[in-house]
Known about the structure:
mainly alpha; 23 helices; 0% strand
Amino acid sequence: MLKRIRIVPVAIPIVLMGIILIIGFVSPDEFTTRMTDFFIALMANAGWMVSLGVLIFVGCMVLLFVHPFGSIKFGGANAKPKYRTWIWWAISLCAGIGTGIVFWGATEPLMHTFAPPPSVGLEAGSLDAVIWGMSKSFLHWSFSPYAIYAVAGIAIGYAYYNMNKSYTASAGLVYLNDGKELNSKINTVIDGIILFAICGGVAGSLGYGLLQIGSGLNFVFGIEPGPVVWAVIACVIIASYTISSATGLDRGISWLSDKNAWIFIVLMIFVLITGPTAYIFNLFTQSLGFFINNFVDLSLFTQPIIDSDLWPQWWDMYWMVDWLSFGPIVGLFLVKLSYGRTIRQFITVNVILPAMFGILWFSVFGGLALDLELRGVADMSGFLADNGAQAFMMYIFEFLPFTELIRIIMLVTIGLSFITLADSMTSTISTMSLKQSKGVKEAPLPIKVFWGIFIGLISLVFVISGGIDGIKIVKTIAGFPILFIELAMILGFLYHLFSGKLKRDEIEYADFMEQEAAAAADEAAAELTDPKIHKKWFNLDKQTKK
């Protein structure tokens, strides 16, 4: 088994995370303080690069969507899609922002509305503050994060399906070397950095998931959260996403994402109908208008004043480097779903549609929280300050019918969201860990089990030790260098296309793409005639119609 593994890229995140784990466990307070100080210095001096870079990513997506290059198909002209558009979108949503919206959907708009930065000159709780706060939430959870994912997905996907490159994040950099693989040592270091960032990213997200599920169990069943409860929750989640990952993309991830997405939609419709419907629609409409009209200004808010409170550094820039820590691996994961699809379809399903869902979700849940606060029904801000964000989403259901039932459903949703995220990331980094990843549909089970347990244990140790804020800062710091990796990917890819290399690729790799199309057609035909597949619950997730 070890002969199949890329030792150095795999060792980099293990060693670095091991060091961080030891330091964080021995002295969590000092560790968090030092990491926080470093993060503040980094964002205060170089955070503007993050804001500018992410806006460039969004601009590149717009360019590729409207340009004729948008009709380029992953896998060549004869490639046929494997997955239905619905399941493609559901997986993209759940692997992208699904874990975050259940944590921040009601919380962030409220926080921005009642604590806007002084530099914007808004009165806390005013209409202008409400609209500004909602727009900032839209910025953090819609087009910008998905553009980060899509940049990596498009650059890697074209290299993988149209240029016969390896299934690694560093494959997205071949355009810097005229379509040839970079030096193996450079690839090793880049992939190691990316694996380290995603380990920190998933561990941090799972850590917050443990806190939120623990709080939910307290609300629903009166179980007081603590180390034992968190450990039990972690074991269930780790076992669930490891088992799901072992079943593969066509079964576990597809099935989980399908159910998760439907629960998201049902919950959102329920809150919309039973909550302040008119207020939510009005809030959505005006906030969306403000967001669209001021998108560039909102994206490039850096607050260049003396003695700044660092609001954009702790919110806008923090969120963007957080998304960057996930960017290349989520993009690499989305590559698996994009065969037979055009770049324009990729942007539609992996940027536009999930981004609009994020905007709707924050409008509905944020609108409910704001309405309760502004009408004086409850002191939502006070509850948030006293109990934290992990308890807030459960609390808002206190003011809706079927409270206990909806809380149970939300608990299931939270669990599914984190299982889906960890499942997709575990599967992707497991395949990327192989020396020969080209054409490998699924990585060996032992590798998946190792990564699943490793990431889960990191999150559990940091939650129990009280150092979750430390790992949160670590993952954002790790995301910063990925900004430059992704800039190199997308700018190199655009240069590759605009310099006329597309025609060369179509000729040079024509035989490869024909072979891949034939192999995909044979696989699809075999699946349609395989009785084992069609006796299983996951067959509905497969692309069975042209």
